[in-house]
Design goal:
The protein has helices at residues 28-38, 53-56, 59-89, 98-114, 116-125, 128-144, 146-152, 167-170, 184-214, 220-253, 255-259, 262-280, 298-311, 313-342, 352-372, 378-397, 403-431, 437-466, 468-496; strands at 157-161, 171-172, 175-176, 179-183. By secondary structure, the chain is mainly alpha-helical.
Length: 497
């Protein structure tokens, strides 16, 4: 007679490999003990409140994390380097630097829009570790070439014909210009920026695709919280220490080397190369499979990624939420200048304090999510975050006369934004199968870069036409629509099941 159900007690299972003992056994206690020792032991249940501890004890995550930190710092230092090179070599005494910097930013943005999706397809076909390592080493090599290239083309110019432009754009200094003499060195800086940005489009989806390979699914939320915290810290610290660090590097190499910007370039290139060398020791347990048949065309793979997003509502909604989130923050980065101009005690040039307050809020929220976020569903967190962002934006629209209230609202905006960004990025990683991650993250990278680019052009015009408060209220409506849409779709799918 069987006393226990076989599903609840392995000792009474009908499996022939497990001995069964009866009352006639001469040494039942010893035999039972030996049997229990041979039985498979169940893994202890994970404690969802463990926070960052399991992630920080994971050496593979620490390697990926460290490589990402050096790579992100190098990205920030690169922009500081470009501004320094422009100010030293190309900007004239009576000329604004903004036009030169805008050209660099355009060269940096074009690959993000054009190459993002294609890069994701190739990330799926290649080993992620190789992409991470090679993209960093190549970026470092391109940066280290800058002094030599600038020395080779010094004093040379490139005549750019302007006949294809409308007369209104060709008319400056009260004359109709037929061509523009662009310094050849600056043209090479644009080319290098384009190449570095192109390699970054491969690095970004490879990094996102690698995280689920080195971190268990239940630890993805604290891992992404830590990444968000790091990104905010690097954003604030990177630009703050970039200029003094590069100037210090030039002083170490001496005056003559400083004329060729060797010290600055060495720092930026070294950070990219260190990132690549760190990632060489990363173990992802990937296995390269030699394709036995002709691989599908790149655009077919991109269509596969789009079809997957259409079928998987959780991943699609997470992507939509992230796009809306980045749209809001891109617009806010423009509106912060006007906001700072209106606030008592701040200048327009000090708009960075408002963005830093928002980043501090995101950092606090990311730490909190790392410890307690796993107790709630991602959809729940996203809804709370969206509603909180809307409330903070409404409060910000009413805070144009109070500096303290403005800082409080931007900090709250950051806190609630992390409740959207971290869980949604975790959803993308956890619910996307390994063979689709590169495609999905490539599409995400493409969509996010477009979301970051369009508001930069539209927000300033809208603020000029309608005023600051209506634009902030419109962003609040966007936040509510995004969160409400995700929650409604999720509830509809659950009810159908």
């Amino acid at each position: 007679m069987q006393l226990f159900d076989s599903e609840t007690d392995d000792a009474t299972s009908s499996d022939s490999s497990t001995p069964v003992f009866n009352s006639s056994d001469s040494s039942p206690r010893q035999s039972d003990t030996e049997t229990m020792n041979r039985l498979p032991k169940r893994a202890p249940k994970s404690n969802p409140s463990q926070g960052f501890a399991p992630v920080l004890k994971n050496p593979r995550f620490l390697i990926l994390w460290a490589g990402g930190i050096f790579s992100q710092l190098a990205d920030k230092f690169y922009l500081v380097l470009m501004i320094s090179l422009i100010a030293t070599h190309y900007q004239k005494a009576d000329q604004s630097i903004s036009g030169w910097v805008s050209a660099i930013m355009i060269a940096n943005t074009i690959p993000a829009v054009l190459v993002g999706s294609v890069a994701g397809v190739y990330v799926d076909r290649w080993l992620k570790k190789q992409v991470l390592v090679i993209s960093n080493l190549l970026r470092g090599a391109f940066v280290l070439l800058i002094p030599l290239l600038l020395w080779l083309v010094r004093e040379q110019t490139l005549a750019v014909p302007l006949g294809w432009l409308p007369e209104g754009l060709r008319n400056w200094h009260y004359r109709l210009q037929g061509e523009f003499n662009l310094p050849f060195g600056f043209f090479l800086l644009l080319v290098i920026t384009f190449l570095v940005s192109t390699l970054t489009q491969f690095f970004a989806p490879a990094e996102q695709s690698t995280l689920p390979l080195v971190v268990k699914r239940r630890h993805l939320l604290p891992a992404n919280s830590l990444n968000t915290l790091t990104t905010m810290a690097v954003l604030i610290i990177g630009f703050a220490i970039g200029e003094p660090l590069l100037a210090f590097a030039d002083s170490i190499f001496g005056t003559r080397a400083g004329q060729f910007d060797i010290g600055k370039v060495m720092i930026v290139g070294a950070f990219y190369i260190i990132a690549g060398l760190i990632l060489i020791i990363l173990r992802t347990n990937e296995k390269y499979v030699i394709p036995t048949a002709e691989q599908p065309h790149v655009w077919e793979d991109i269509r596969d990624g789009i079809r997957y997003l259409n079928k998987n509502h959780k991943v699609r909604n997470a992507l939509i939420q992230l796009v809306i989130l980045f749209c809001i923050f891109a617009a806010l980065s423009v509106l912060a200048v006007s906001m700072a101009e209106k606030l008592p005690g701040l200048k327009a040039s000090q708009f960075g304090f408002l963005l830093a307050s928002c980043g501090a809020g995101m950092a606090v929220s990311a730490i909190t999510l790392g410890y307690w976020g796993q107790k709630f569903s991602h959809t729940q967190l996203s809804l709370w975050g969206s509603l909180g962002m809307a409330a903070a934006l409404i409060g910000l629209s009413l805070a144009t006369k109070s500096l303290i209230l403005a800082f409080a609202m931007t900090a709250l905006l950051g806190i609630f934004a992390a409740l959207v960004g971290v869980p949604m990025q975790t959803t993308l990683q956890a619910d996307t199968p390994p063979e689709m991650r590169g495609k999905v993250f490539g599409l995400e990278n493409n969509a996010v870069n477009i979301a970051l680019s369009l508001p930069l052009a539209v927000a300033g015009i809208a603020e000029t036409q309608f005023g600051l408060r209506p634009v902030l209220l419109a962003l609040a409506v966007m936040a509510v629509i995004g969160g409400g849409f995700t929650w409604y779709v999720s509830r509809s799918v659950i009810s159908k099941q």
